[in-house]
Amino acid sequence: MSAAPKAIMTSRYHEVYGHWQRDSHGFWAEAAQAIDWMRPWAQVFDPTLDVYGRWFPGALCNTCYNALDRHVERGRGAQPAIIYDSPVTGTKRSISYSGLLSEVRTLAAVLRDLGVAKGDRVVIYMPMVPEAAVAMLACARIGAVHSVVFGGFAAKELATRLDDAEPRLILSASCGIEGARIVAYKPLLDEAIDLARVKPEKCLILQRPQAEASLVKGRDLDWAETVAAARAAGKDADCVPLAATDPLYILYTSGTTGQPKGVVRDNGGHMVALAWSMQHLYGIDPGEVFWAASDVGWVVGHSYIVYGPLIHGCTSILYEGKPVGTPDAGAYWRVIAEHGVVALFTAPTAFRAIKKEDPRAALLAGHDLSRFRTLFLAGERADPDTVQWAEHILGVPVIDHWWQTETGWPVAANPVGLGVLPVKHGSPTVPMPGYDVRVVDEAAKELPANTMGSIVVRMPLPPGCLPTLWKADDRFRESYLTEFPGYYKTADAGFVDEDGYLFIMGRTDDIINVAGHRLSTGGMEEVLASHPDVAECAVIGVRDELKGEVPCGFIVLKSGVTRSPVEIEAEIVALVREKIGPVAAFKLAVTVGRLPKTRSGKILRGTMKKIADAEPWSLPATIDDPAILEEIGEALRRHGLGG
Ligand code: COA
Ligand code: AMP
């Protein structure tokens, strides 16, 4: 990458990145000093192990010990570890490090007594309540591999994950609360277990007063009763020594088909990377209050609601609410002021939602944000308008940063802990140590500055990134390592400018980002195709002012279908909600006579997207029948799209 301009040199970034470039193993060995190990590693990185090598082989450690026990042992016991703030239930609860440790010890003992042992999988299907974090940490304590499934997914999606992870136990709750809507989780869980090939032995159900669930005899246990009985009996579980390379969790994320990818996270490298990022990237000191306004069902929740802040000895906010409507667009300012938050991490969508409701940020008035230092945005492209608005109303640096479920921590950022680099709107700034980011053409040849191409990372990936996919080494190789030999394919496209700043312009596959949620249009197409009246279909992401992108489905009806297209379109919308879940935000199905294709039969999704977004488009040379594009434009205009 090209040399940095003068202004950049005031930050320590180049010195630190250079250290990593010169001596990667030395760099990570030094970073690993932030972690308490039960036995040191034999090698910092062994390239011969598994698919592409493993970090810290030979070391023994425990993530729960590093997140809780050691802080209590060293005097942090009385400090809040988690502040649960739930405007949707009117609850606020501060849980100290000692208190959290005590809850985790007891739940870990319950899991153990239910037969969960090291290496067993436990699925967690829970809303944003402290018990979700307790569940993750309890698994980590005994070496069980957790897999948290986001609550906005439907039963079928949950069932797919149950079949892949094969959990011995499921931890769930009776309901979640989505703004004013109570979402009963238990019927979804029961249906998923019915659908799944692999059935759990037991389910531990947290009853919430907003909607109590009926329990299945012999299978379901009441969380509160079971934990209370264990506590009364003095049950307790110590940390199990685990290999640094043992899995801590599996987190499913959208792939290009309906079959999600099970991203595996290890224990040792993960802790090292998170600890480094909390200090140097986010610029947070132990004892400070950090808030990632996401959900434990996403990678942001894993890394920066639960593990990162706790490993670093911070107080983490667990917020059960929305940026708007709970009760208004001042909710974020209230939380920041009330709990002394120093940095907030959220998706640009949240700020677009706040800006829409309160464009002058009138609701900021009266909130003391004097301790607030930085706003971090990720999950989708941070549009310059939103960034500028946030800078203007908050008067603090607004930092875009770029990463993926697979990487577990940011690939590119403006590392404020090393001194803020000049911000360029539209860029997540520069690669973090560990990531040798390049922009290449289809032949894996590096492209010059300011030229769009595929963004790849030179192997090996740093600590914290996925070593493989769960039970799917070959899929891991095919998805990420084969297309550009020697590199990890991010499946994002973009460029690097003359100052070495990265610009991320969009995905190269069929993944779309809806309100910062990652979704597969391929998975949605599978659902559309399952409708009995649909002959052919295509789903694309179209631009949306609030959510960045929303899905739009095109359907071609089977010949002989005489029912009203409007009726069928409504059924399609309901079907996606039923099969994938409300999080897909699939609200638009458009019936067309034919789909535009190349002569070889490939659907021209890119051109359809341009038409829908009212962007200039040119007639593809290989198109089978150009008149179809006119028809598509017409159909979109009938639905208010396409300009
Ligand atoms: N359980 C059940 N349903 C859920 C859910 C959950 N955990 N999370 C979302 N849903 C539902 C929503 O209620 C909504 O349902 P609806 O179609 O009946 O309205 C649907 O899934 C889509 O959710 P969402 O895309 O979040 O839209 P929204 O209109 O509810 O909220 C925002 C819009 C902007 C307020 C919201 O998207 C937001 O807070 N975004 C911040 C981004 C974020 O947290 N990203 C995570 C990655 S960092
Ligand atoms: P997820 O795995 O859900 O975190 O989604 C990862 C994808 O979200 C990336 O591959 C990008 O396409 C997109 N993404 C995340 N952060 C950013 C960002 N800061 N700018 C642009 N796109 C982003």
UniProtKB/TrEMBL annotation:
It comes from the Bacteria. It holds the Pfam family ACAS_N. Residues 524-602 form the AMP-binding enzyme C-terminal domain. Residues 72-460 form the AMP-dependent synthetase/ligase domain. CDD domains: PrpE. Residues 13-67 form the Acetyl-coenzyme A synthetase N-terminal domain. Belongs to the ATP-dependent AMP-binding enzyme family. This is Propionyl-CoA synthetase. It comes from Chelatococcus albus.
